Amino acid sequence: MTRMRKQARRFVLAAGLLVAPALAMAADQGAKGQAKSAGQKPPAAAAQESPMNVEQLNDNIAQHSGKQVSVAGEIEEWLDARSFVLESGGLFNDEIAVIVPPNAKGLDAQRLREDADIVVSGTVRSVPLVELERELGWDLDPELEVEFEGTKHFLVADRITRQRD
Question: Does residue 154 sit in helix, strand or coil?
């Protein structure tokens, strides 16, 4: 191959690397526009409907505080009849305390065993445990208070469903 052809091929490759992201962005904007005009949700919104795992939640916990989320994971340990630890199988930052108020919908939480794969939909709360106890009318056992000591974030469940494989 001649030197001129090699340079031309490099130029075309470099131009393609620069243009491809712009084309992808334009295609995404077009898909969003078509979805809106058809009354459908754009692809990004549809993807957000699938549950995140606990690690993803904890990595951005501040942005989710006070908001409704759906989180997939496994019951690692029941703490009492109304609370358990949900984990996602990662090495770090993969656990959150889940509080199940009496009005939670879906499966009877007490019937779920440890290691059950579930999806918890609820509100992320970043409040002191005392405030959460007061709001939910929940009087924690002193041993459980010790267990929750230092916990800054909770997921207050509205609905619990079994996760489908």
Answer: strand
